[in-house]
Amino acid sequence: MINKCKEELKKDVFAIVTDNENKMKRMKQLLQEKYPDLVVYGCSAHYVNLIEKEVTPKTVMKHIVEVQKYFRNVHQAHGWLREKKGLMPQIPNETRWSSHSACVRTFVSNYHLYRQISTDNDDFDNTIEKILNNVGIYREALNLQDQLISVSNSLDRFQSDSTSISDSVDVWKKLLVNENLLPYKHCFIKRYKQVIEPYHFLAYMLDPQYIFQNLLTPEEESVAEDWIISMYPHFFPAVMAFKIQDESYFPKTMFNSNILKEFKTVQWWRIMEKKCDKIENVPNDFCKFLISLHSCPASSASIERIFSTYGLVWSDLRNRLGSEKAQKLVKVYRNLSCTKSQNQINYTED
């Protein structure tokens, strides 16, 4: 496929992001062996979704899910809840991100309605009533909600089309020091080490948005520097110059706080590319490399949204729709969605 892109489409493949299933991990290893300069990494959103399951106590969730299923699936109980104008109970779904958080959130929001319904109706299920009368489960749900909100918010950011791999480092770093998640810090450290590659550190280190709030450790910076030396040694002086904001390489005005707020990272490097044409110290392809690096999304969520769009377009009612027309409709739908986004970054060029 990579060769096909180069030969038939005349496009270079800079990076590949996949989910973290075992076969995908093996594929990443094979790709890196065959194409050493290819940026290949795992999806941060998938790893955080795994953490969401890991930080959710099964004993507590068992009771919460039992209550949620009762009010969602039992017709009479669901009717009682609708009369009280409660939220639709959510149930964890293995293929739906943030579903654990949504389950706990709706349980906590509806809890007092659940209790009221149980006392108002004599034919209420006794097993569910016992769970609702256990205040300890509700307290555990409250604590769990605080933890899962932080994870869910991070997951939402990872799924965004505008979140790059440098942004993903920032999100992971903040998760590692989140006070609500300290009991599960070992889980986050484990996943952090699994998902973050040297080029994540490099992207973060060379992101103007984070130049004044660098959260990398000296060891992580060394990993990034070692990678750039091994892959693109002629870039190393420019990397060091960026770190110290050397004016002989980069105009001082570009590091002004107002400029950094005005332009997103890819835009900033595109402007720098124009300016560096007149500066001999900066390698010709350095800025272009960083534009590509900062265009790498943090997750594979964008691709999965395309699959979902295909499901909407190529439905059972439109099963005679040709594949070519379906492809065009999906492209139109996705492009229209992109134009509505205020913070859209184009990761591909037509």
From TrEMBL:
It comes from the Eukaryota. Signal peptide: none annotated. SUPFAM superfamilies: Ribonuclease H-like. GO terms for molecular function: protein dimerization activity. Residues 251-336 form the HAT C-terminal dimerisation domain. Transmembrane segments: none annotated. This is HAT C-terminal dimerisation domain-containing protein. It comes from Macrosiphum euphorbiae (potato aphid).
